[in-house]
Amino acid sequence: MNPLDDLQRLLAKRSARRGTFTLSSGRESTLYIDARLTTMSPEGLVLIGQLGLAALVKAGWEAQSVGGLTLGADPVAYAISYASALAGHPIRAFTVRKEPKAHGTQRLIEGPFHPGDRVVVIEDVITTGASALRAAKAVRAEGAQVIGALAVVDRDEGGRAVLEQDGIPVIALTSASSILAYMS
């Protein structure tokens, strides 16, 4: 069994839908990928943790923490963090809120994030790159170094180029076209 094939099959079965949709970016699409239906499932968490950690290692990205804009990035970051602990090289996970908390510490970034961390920004699905850029801006403002972005799915609609223009290299575990190949 190939974990990437398994992930693509799972995304095709649970997360991908054909029709007419308005994406969060405002763009119209005939393909909708609600990755959370996969990233929040037990099988998806196992596959994404394993594949995400392997992708970071292969890229040579020695991240101290991973995370991104809530809610899409959260289960992906947690899966990678858990897989890293099992592998004996723990990487901390964090969440970037959409707005700072109005009470308590009024933090924008939650979790064991440290200023100065080498960070990989996480995204479930990259379309325009706006969510990943927003997360990158937040962690940079706290003194972290963004060493890359990892997405579960790249829709191949320009988001990768936007991030790369901002100096953020991108790795995607799969693409929309690869998922489409598994849809019946």
List the helices and strands and how they pair.
Layout: H1 3-15, E1 16-22, E2 28-33, H2 36-39, H3 42-59, E3 65-69, H4 74-86, E4 92-96, E5 109-110, E6 118-126, H5 130-141, E7 145-154, H6 159-165, E8 170-175, H7 176-180
Parallel strand pairs: 3-4, 3-6, 6-7, 7-8
Antiparallel strand pairs: 1-2, 4-5
Helix content, binned percent: 25-40%
Q: CATH topology, anyone?
A: Rossmann fold
Give the overall form.
Answer: globular
Mean pLDDT score, rounded? 94
* CATH architecture label name: 3-Layer(aba) Sandwich
- Structural class computed from helices and strand pairing: alpha/beta
Q: Tell me the number of strands.
A: 8
Gyration radius, in Å: 16 Å
**What count of domains describes the coordinates?**
1
What does this structure look like?
The structure is a single chain. The protein has 184 residues and is α/β, with parallel strands linked by helices. It has a single domain, classed as Rossmann fold, CATH 3.40.50.2020. It is 39% helix and 27% strand. The protein has seven helices and eight strands, in the order H-E-E-H-H-E-H-E-E-E-H-E-H-E-H. It has a six-stranded mixed β-sheet, sandwiched between helices. The mean pLDDT is 94.
